[in-house]
Every structure is written in structure tokens, then in C-alpha cells.
Amino acid sequence: MFFEFGPKSSTLLIFFFHGIVFSILLFYKAFSNNSKSGYWLSLFTFLCALYLCPFMLGYGAWYSKQPYRDIMFYIPFQQLFLLPPVLYFYIRSLLDKSFIFSKKDWLHFLPAICYFLYCLIVFVTDKIILKQYYFYLDGKDKDLSTWYQLAGFLSFIGYLLASLDIYKKYKKISYDELSFADSVMFKWASRFLTAMLLLLLIRGLLFLLNPEWGEFGKKYWYYGCFSVLVYYVSISGYVNSVSSMTSLKTLTLAGTNLDNTDITVEKAEEIPAGETGQHTGAVDKQLPDLLVWKEKIEQVMEQQKLYEDPELTLSQLCNTLGIHSKKGSQIINQGFGINFNDFVNLYRTKAVIKKMEAGEHSLQTLLGIAYECGFNSKSTFNRAFKRHITISPQAYIEKYREQIGVKS
Q1: What's the pTM?
Q2: pLDDT tens string 64-93
Q3: What does the alpha-carbon distance between residue 98 and residue 96 come to, in Å, rounded to a whole number?
Q4: 269: phi > 0 → left, psi -120 to 50 → alpha, else beta; which?
Q5: Which residues contact 88 (CB under 8 A, 6 or more apart)?
Q6: In sequence order, what are the beta bridge partners of 281?
Q7: How far is 34 from 23, CA to CA, in rounded Å?
Q8: In this structure, are residues 326 and 311 in contact, taking their beta carbons and an 8 Å threshold?
Q9: For residues 287 and 32, what is the distance between their CA atoms, to the nearest angstrom?
Q10: 175, 180, 181, 184: CA torsion to nearest 10
Q11: Domains delineated in the chain
């Protein structure tokens, strides 16, 4: 097969090859793990690899020789209307365990279908009906047309913003429902979206510096950056095998009561954390119902020590109390002025301090004590302790050396 190897064409060829390989690996992994998000990421990586073709093959001199020139003209390598919705549905399926692709979701792919039909019409007209260039009389690849590149760029902006909104919602729900939210915050998803945002900024800058998209000019550096970011996404996506713990459907129910008991209170004014770090809500005109349920929750947490379960969820707490999780969320949010994750970590922090005061930190490590109290990682423990106590665990020991029996 004809291909002129040069610094630019060879570099892009390497990234193209790796993109194809990783798309296959991601597909196989998704198939093995029955991962819906894995399939979307596999497709996204494959489309990104195809995206490189016009410039990789262009630098390889395919535009200058037949039949390669016609391959470049009539195959729509750059699927600019397909990449954005695939990115969006990858994030949806990754962060929302309740997500099911429905018939109406096909509407997102209507622009991509229309562009494919347009390319088919161009091919049939030029190669079958007229048997000569009509649409390609100007000798310019339609994939590189300014209107198409700009429309794809705007589509990418829209779907990336929608994906960021999903991540924001997922983060909120996780902190409201899981006591181990920090460990399932999908730092991978955050890094992935950051990489896409960076790519978008680079592409926007290129539009300003070199708007003539059909001319190769200075575009190699953009495709180089694109290749590096996609390479990172491919490797990281393969290594990070994650699945969502929450459903975004719960967000639509936030603030509503699903049983017969109404709980409405005026917004709590948060009392600043003192040295004990306990956050409480000073609520005006608290309803008796709210106070009763607050006491019940406190009693269950203290007597049964539910906080010691590192995987405690809001549903588990509410099942113990015999109430709906939405009601439990309202009680915690409005009654204590914090979300469920902070609420449980507060109990864990207080339990750690109690063990410190009993001198247990001189018998085992602080991390060992933290694990006993329900924390599942050192970073989460340090972050929660400092959030509620305002100083680090070690600084707390130094500050209250005499009270907790630490020898000089």
C-alpha cells in the first residue's frame, strides 16, 4: 500500500495504530465485564483514531495519487456529528447506573446520519451517475470544510457542557447517598472531561489562528495534541474499570416527600465548627417531627455504630429506621445542615477522637484507628478530620497532647 513515511505522517500513524488497538481492547473488556460504558468508550476511541486519517494519510501523500485520493474524498473519516453524542452517552452510562439507551436517544445521532447520507449522495453522484467530479470539482475534502468543522466544534461544546452537568449532578447525589463518596467520585471521569475541555480550547485557538481548515498549514500541532490526549484517554480508560453506585433519577425526587409525613423547615443557619468540629443546624421554628427523627437517627448511629461500616449508604440507614431514603435525606440535610457523607464522616471523626482520648493511638497507627471507625482510605480520613476539626489528626494530637495522654 502506498504511503510516504515522514516525521508527521509516521507520528500520526503510530497514534492511529494505538487508537485502533485500544478501541479493540476496550471493546473486549466491555464485553467481558458486560460494561455499557466500556462499549461507548471503545466507540469513542475508534472514532478518534479515524479522526486522524485525513491528516495522517494526507501527510502520507494520499491526496496526490489515485485511487487513494478518492478514498480520502468519499469516506467520511471525521465524524464530527457522531463524536460529541458518543462522548455524552459514555459519561451518562458511566455515572448513572439507571441509564438505559431509549428510542428517543437516537435523535442525538440524527445530524450524523444526515451527514452520512450527504456523503453517500456525493459518492453516488460523482462516481456512479456522472462518473466524474461534480461535488469534488474544487478538489477539496468535504470533511475539512469550514462549515462542517465549525458545526462539529459547536456540537462538541454543547455535549461537553451537558456531560459536565451530569458529572456535577452525580457528585451531588453521591455525597447525599454514600458515606464513601470520596472513593467513587470517579476522578477518572473528571480527568477525562478535563482532557476533552483542553482539547476543545486548543481547537478553538486553532480556529482563530488558522481558520482555513482545508489547508494543512499549522494544523499538525493540533493533531499532535489531539493524538496525545486520545492516547492518554485510551490507556486510562482501559486501566480504570469503574461502575456507578448511584442513579441520577434520584435527583428529580430531591426535595419531595414520598410518604405521608411532611417535613418543612426554614433554612438552617450553620453554626461554625468549634474545636470538636460538630456541625449542627440552628433551625428556626423546628417542627416536632423533625426533632423526633433527628433524635432517632442520632440514637441509631450511636447505639448500633452504623458509621463503622465503610460502605454505609443512606438506604441502609433509612431501612434501619423504616423510612424512605428521600425522607432520611431531608432530615439530615435540613436538620443537621450537612449532607449524608459529611454526617457519617462526622461520627467517624468523633469516634477517632474518642479512641485518641482513650490512648489507643499509642498502641496502633492513626490509620488503623481510622479504619476501625469506618474510614476506607487515608486521604478520606485526613480530609474529613480537617473538615470537621479544622486541623489535621497529627496537629490535633500535638495540640491536645496532655489531655489525650501523649508522652513528651
Answers
A1: 0.79
A2: 899 999 999 999 999 999 999 999 999 999
A3: 5
A4: beta
A5: 108, 159, 162, 163
A6: 270
A7: 16
A8: no
A9: 52
A10: -160
A11: 7-248 (1.20.1070.10), 255-399 (1.10.10.60)
